[in-house]
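Tokens in:
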């Protein structure tokens, strides 16, 4: 399934933000959450915003503004950022992915959406583990379906790492076996 055009335009802008941060000697923001799920699922799973992590939120927000993002005001608006050409918002949700529980050496750089630019994204194993943790918490029962969808779409997963991450995010009563049909 091809990615929806709105997501690709948003990710191209994210790649430009990543490169601007890198040019300043700052860490790249990392894509997590629903947009990562949409990317890894080829838009089979869809989102309404891009969740980012960054230890330098103020500097990241400066780069968002330079690329035309605005913080909307008024009733019904979230705390995130919007770009007038996008149908997706951007929100900084944490300083680091998963409070540092993931293996940073597994982060991926995705290129090809903007000239000479790439964006950082968590690996699909961390994303699945996050979905399982949200499912087990009882606050998001639909996350089990998302985790299983991503698991099915990526047969080349590192199952050892995935097992470890699920057990960390979802408790010792859950693991890879919960994803299999």
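Residues out:
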């Amino acid at each position: 399934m091809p990615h929806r055009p709105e997501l690709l335009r948003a990710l191209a802008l994210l790649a430009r933000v990543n490169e601007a941060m890198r040019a300043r000697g700052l860490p790249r923001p990392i894509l997590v959450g629903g947009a990562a799920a949409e990317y890894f699922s080829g838009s089979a799973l869809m989102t309404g915003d891009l969740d980012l992590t960054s230890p330098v939120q103020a500097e990241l927000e400066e780069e968002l503004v330079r690329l035309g993002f605005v913080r909307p005001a008024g009733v019904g608006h979230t705390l995130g950022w919007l770009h007038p050409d996008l149908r997706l918002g951007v929100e900084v949700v944490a300083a680091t992915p998963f409070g540092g529980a993931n293996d940073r050496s597994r982060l991926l750089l995705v290129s090809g959406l903007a000239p000479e630019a790439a964006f950082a994204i968590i690996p699909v194993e961390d994303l699945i583990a996050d979905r399982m943790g949200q499912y087990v918490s009882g606050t998001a029962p639909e996350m089990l379906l998302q985790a299983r969808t991503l698991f099915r779409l990526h047969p080349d997963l590192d199952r050892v790492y995935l097992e470890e991450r699920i057990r960390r995010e979802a408790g010792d009563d859950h693991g890879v076996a919960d994803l299999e049909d």
